[in-house]
Fold this protein.
Amino acid sequence: MTDGNQALKKAGLKITLPRVKILELMQEPENQHISAEDLYKKLLEIGEEIGLATVYRVLNQFDDAGIVTRHHFETGKAVFELSTQHHHDHLVCLSCGRVIEFSDEVIERRQLEIAARHNIKLTNHSLYLYGHCTNDTCDHNDE
């Protein structure tokens, strides 16, 4: 049984072709922070006839089961990434929508210190930093 199939079983989900194919695509590094629509397009590119409604339904099931994490960046659409990754924060370009993951021990330590100063024990947190690309790789750097 593959890791993906084990993840589905552990989450209490039946192993179906759409779930397996979507999970396989989500495991590819270039498919992190991907929208349902873009995932649907990638499925079509590889010859998988899985409908857009099914992609949305499966991603919602994966989100409910904790297999993926849904992010609502300021780009206007939800994107998904696997939940099994180490904790990280995000930089988001408001022009092209590019998402950069980063980890910083100083930021993590400061967040814990600030929470403790206010008598809060952190159980979870997300940090999103928004801006605009300043290099030539941005699709919309002339705006």
Observations:
- The beta strands are 68-71, 79-82, 89-93, 99-102, 128-131.
- Helices lie at 3-10, 17-26, 36-45, 52-65, 105-117.
